[in-house]
Structures are given as structure tokens and as C-alpha cells.
Specification:
The chain is mostly beta strands and about 300 residues long. The protein has helices at about 30-35, 160-175, and strands at about 40-50, 60-70, 75-90, 95-105, 110-120, 120-130, 140-145, 150-155, 180-185, 195-205, 225-235, 245-250, 255-260, 265-275.
Length: about 300
């Protein structure tokens, strides 16, 4: 489960943005996530300010983030929708709505991204683009159509969000505590970033009583891991992170709890609704999984 930069980075569940319930069929033989036991799902998170510096101009932050992830016939598709309220000490409050979607091919050779942000109902940022292999054997160039003329060269080995999540969990299962990679997710105009992941002790998540009617407990009762991630500008000479986050990531790709720490403030992202989805590409003769959990 994509997250939040200064305006809340959608990485939250996208980058993880994820082996309890595996599908009874496979997709084109290339869907590593389904084979690893990841569960297509949609989730709703409550976001709140958890701490701030005394010098911060932020008075309060609150809102919600809707996340949906599922495989199509040849790619992983994710959607984030943020509805945030930013309150300031000396300025009027601002409501920001963000929509961010990605299409990441199973073979890692194609990645499309699009996002739009609105401030008090007016669009103030729009991003679209794709990653392709230009004169190389690997995807090495991120080309934005909006804004125009924005291009990033991607180092060999750059990962997209779902591939990164899969590699992190693979390293966990091998007993490795640290994992470092260069990631591109297309959520902003800043290009690829380096992410250092530290895996802590196994985590147990208990569904809060007030959300038991809205969270499918079978999706969060399995093994989870406490993780710490630090996000660095690519080739950062100062070795200081832009922001860091702590989270519980389950083996099936669900994120049940998260805290994101920026230099001036921190926010929590708490799971309040969760249900399993069927596939967006069901083979003939397979009945889609029914959504049985009431949406909050």
C-alpha cells in the first residue's frame, strides 16, 4: 500500500502502494505477485497529523486515502485517491484532492503513470508519462507527456513499485535485514529515488473493534513485518533522506499501519476498511470473486 511527500506522497501502498489467499489460476505465466501470494484488494486509510516541530507552519493535517491494486491480463494496476485538508497557523486551510494511477507490466519493460492534483477544486498539477527502452535492453528512459519536455534517464536496475515490493519481501524471506534499490514511480516531477529498507521483527496486527465490520480480517491475520524505509534523492551527496516511514507490510501485499516522517511534521496512515478484489482479467470459465465487505 503508496505515499506522501510534502503534499502526501502516494507511495503508500503503491510501492508496497504490498500468502494468505492465492488465486486458483495464473496470468500469462508472468504475474510474480499472484504467484507470491499477493491478494488483489482495495483499502481505505485515515490520515492524521501525529507530530510537528514548534517552528512548523502546519497547524493540522487530516484526510483519507483510497487504494486499489489488482492484476490485469499483462500488468499490475494501482490507483490512489487522496482527499486531504491542510490547516495552517497563519493562512487559510486548503483542501487537496489527488488521483494517481500506474500500469506496470509483468515483464518490467513498460510502466505508465498519470496523476492530477486539485486545490480547493482547481487543478494545480497534472502528470502523465511512460517508461520505455530507448536503445537499451532495459527500460532506461522516463518520458513525460505532461509536463512536456521532461525526461529522466533511469539507471540500469531501476525498479517500479510492485517489482520493488516483491524484491523487498523476497529479501525478507531470505533473512536479509537491509535492501537498497533505485525506484521510479512517476508520482511527481522529481524522477527516480534511492530507497533503503530495513526489516525489523515480525509484526502482529489486530483489527480495531470499531472497524471490524469494514476490514476483512483474513487479509491481515497472516504474517507481517515491521519495516523502516528512507527515501533519498538519486545520487545524493549529503546522504540525508527526504523523508522516512515505518510500516507493517503483510506477506500478501497489504499494508495495515504506517507513519510517514518529514522534516517538519509526521502523519499516520491507519487502515479503516479493506476487502478482497477479483482479477481485472478473469480467464474464461472463472467467476470473479464477490466483494462481500461493506465499504466504510
Amino acid at each position: 500500500m503508496g505515499i506522501l511527500k510534502k503534499t502526501i506522497k502516494p507511495w503508500s501502498v503503491s510501492l508496497f502502494v504490498f500468502a494468505l489467499i492465492a488465486p486458483t489460476f495464473s496470468y500469462a505465466g508472468l504475474d510474480r505477485a499472484s504467484k507470491a501470494g499477493f491478494v488483489p484488494h482495495k483499502a481505505l486509510y485515515d490520515i492524521k497529523l501525529s507530530s510537528k516541530n514548534s517552528s512548523s507552519k502546519i497547524a493540522n493535517i487530516s484526510g483519507r486515502m483510497f487504494y486499489e491494486w489488482q492484476p490485469s491480463c499483462d500488468a499490475w494496476v494501482s490507483t490512489h485517491r487522496f482527499d486531504m485538508m491542510y490547516e495552517y497557523v497563519e493562512l487559510p486551510a486548503v483542501r487537496v484532492k489527488s488521483d494517481f494511477s500506474t500500469y506496470e507490466s509483468f515483464d518490467g519493460k513498460s510502466f505508465n503513470f498519470t496523476s492530477q492534483r486539485k486545490r480547493d477544486g482547481m487543478v494545480f498539477e497534472e502528470i502523465r508519462g511512460n517508461v520505455s527502452a530507448k536503445d537499451a535492453d532495459y527500460p532506461n528512459e522516463a518520458v513525460y507527456s505532461i509536463p512536456e519536455d521532461l525526461v529522466y534517464d533511469l539507471p540500469e536496475g531501476t525498479l517500479f513499485p510492485m517489482a520493488h515490493t516483491l524484491d523487498v519481501l523476497s529479501s525478507v524471506k531470505k533473512g536479509q535485514k537491509f535492501y537498497k534499490a533505485t525506484i521510479f514511480d512517476g508520482s511527481d516531477e522529481e524522477g527516480p529515488v534511492d530507497i533503503t529498507s530495513f526489516v525489523g521483527k515480525p509484526a502482529v496486527y489486530n483489527v480495531p473493534e470499531e472497524y471490524k465490520d469494514h476490514i476483512d480480517a483474513s487479509l491481515v491475520n497472516g504474517k507481517g513485518w515491521n519495516m523502516r524505509l528512507a527515501f533519498f534523492p538519486l545520487n545524493n551527496p549529503e546522504s540525508t533522506s527526504d523523508y522516512e516511514m515505518s510500516l507493517i507490510l503483510h506477506d500478501n501485499g497489504v499494508i495495515s499501519d504506517m507513519e510517514i516522517e518529514y522534516s517538519e511534521f509526521s502523519v499516520t496512515q491507519k487502515l479503516i476498511a479493506l476487502e478482497k478484489l477479483g482479477s481485472a482479467c478473469e480467464p474464461e470459465g472463472v467467476t470473479p470473486v464477490e466483494n462481500k465487505v461493506e465499504k466504510k
